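input
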Amino acid sequence: FFLGEVLISTGLILYLIRLFFNYLNFSFHFISLNGLTLGLSAILVSLLLFYLMKTKFSKFSEKNNSFAKLSVILLFISGFIVEVLKFMWGRVRFRDLQEGITSFTSWYLPQGLTGSQSFPSGHAFLGWILIPLFLLFLNKNELKKWIFLILTIIFGVFVSYERIVVGAHYASDVLFSWGIVTITFLILYNRYFPKKKIFPTMKKKKSKKRN
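output
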């Protein structure tokens, strides 16, 4: 079980690194000396994180533990769905369209293994993956909760907009990434925070009846 956790954690770290290099348009291959070094570093980081969780952070509150589990599972499931769809859908990016946009395809028409990976957007997915941060202040500090929620939404919108502007994606690409993250988050939220409401309703004060 512990080995599986380390492997999943290492995979997530390497996945984020790959997306980071792709974002910078930097050519990088994991099957190389640098790649193997990076992989070993990711394993060491994972082991260090697990050590800290078992020792320094072992007294986390139940809410923080639920937040950590939700965030990791959200990253893993959403990232897996996005990557599988990108690989299988084969949609040509806007900036790679041939003259006369003859190679354009609608989002609902999968093209198979073409090598193109426009749909859905991996960077937009990462932009929205920060949404759970506001849970740290759920039913504790309403102002901070709203600040973090608004900031994460602004960040997600900014990343999505930037990917459209540079021609890397269509609006449908980033919208589907947002939908995948949001739906997965809501499902996990009901699993780990079943008694907590994101937007608690205002309780009406009952007026005392005068005798």
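quick obs: Residues 202-211 have pLDDT under 50 and may be disordered.
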